[in-house]
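Researcher: Let's run the pair from yesterday's discussion. Sequence first, then tokens, for each.
Model: Starting with the first of the pair.
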Amino acid sequence: MELWFKEVYPQGWGVVFKVEKGLCSVRSPYQRIDVLETKSHGRMLVIDGAVMLTELDEFAYHEMLVHVAMFSHPNPKDVLIIGGGDGGTAREVLRHDVKKILLVDIDEEVVNVSKRFFPSLATSFEDERLEVRAEDGIDFVKRASNGSYDVIIVDSTDPVGPAVGLFEKPFFEDCFRVLREDGIMVAQSGSPYFQLDIVAKSHKNMSEVFPIARTYIAGTPSYGGLWSFVIGSKRYLPEEPIREDSSVLEKLKYYNLDVHLGAFKLPTYIKKAIDEAKAS
């Protein structure tokens, strides 16, 4: 008997993976976490029925979430990651010459599952520069001191349950406050195909808080094709990388400086949705 995992999007389409076997299924106080071995994409992390990552193409998402912001800042030393319990975002940040990373994820069970089943991501947890706290990211940022971080990276699930507030303006305002005077914030902002309203709203909220706000995109097959990210900057134009570190770039599989520049060239329908949201 063949087994298939199917994630169906509200618009009536989705993605399907042939499953070789189930490796893990746990329910934390916050969500259900599954690890599946797929025929085409290797191991896959699923949270509450939604694909979080696959071994085949997780590099595309994590590299684009991290390196656009990191290469847009001249000297990112202190980095805050909200979410990202699988360790992939921290892995990419640690490629840079950072001093300290604080990863705040509400669900420590995601960290435990990643350590067990995704060693290529979980290597980040062995680095002494990384500190992990099992806390609500929204509450943490509310309590954090002003001007504590150079870069904030939000690697969250979709805006459901405890993640809803991570897409809202008050959270962006708290992030602005705890960033240093030239700080940069970046967050995943959903699929331009089936979550265009989230893409547009996230951009609007960011633009109302940061003097510089941009949306960019990357190819992520496991998420249905394209994915979007919204970035806010206090000083630097994020569409123009200001560093070129060959020791980092030579290790990457998706991100390069040309991709960085091109990622901000948005299709007309995305630009239109963003403009309409900002005008509303």
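Model: Moving on to the second of the pair.
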Amino acid sequence: MDNLHEIIKGRSAPGMLIFDMDNNLLYSNKEALDMLPDLQKPPIDSLEGKPAKGEKRQNTLNEIHSLCNRIKKNVNAIGTASTDLNCAVLHSDMGTCSMRASFMGGPESKNPTHIVVLLEKIILRHQTDIEKVRAEFGLSNRELEVLECISEGFSNKTISEKLCISEYTVKDHIKNIMRKMNVASRGEIMAHTR
């Protein structure tokens, strides 16, 4: 359970934006501004020292407003939007993040007064430093091959086919990796290889 706590502590806090029902931004936390710095204030035109057109800010806001408008149009009888409509991906200069929108306010959200948009960074692929893992945990060459396959998200069957070994042998290698790393799951293995 301590390892799970470490994994949770290692995650970044989500960004939070709160809009009124007219899509006016009322609140943004520090994490949201770190992910979307163009929301902080309109950019300054360096030649004239005055606010520039703010094109990036407007494009970002347009994508977020589009998500908010989508859930407002598709509200069911109890005031909640379909879960496939309340999510979107936003690309910015700071990377890619997921957006999830939900209603706030009113008794049981039947009369929403605000929309909260949660932003979370998306890490497209986790790279494992194999030599660091080898040195730290004393893994064999075959265990490192299995670890690389685990980090790619392969199932035991796929690992066995890829390495031309039986699934039972894959399971034995995974047990040895977990024992050497003093962990109890694949998720914990990945947490220890970052």
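Researcher: Give me one sentence on the second I can quote.
Model: Strands lie at 15-20, 25-28, 44-45, 50-51, 87-92, 95-104, 114-121.
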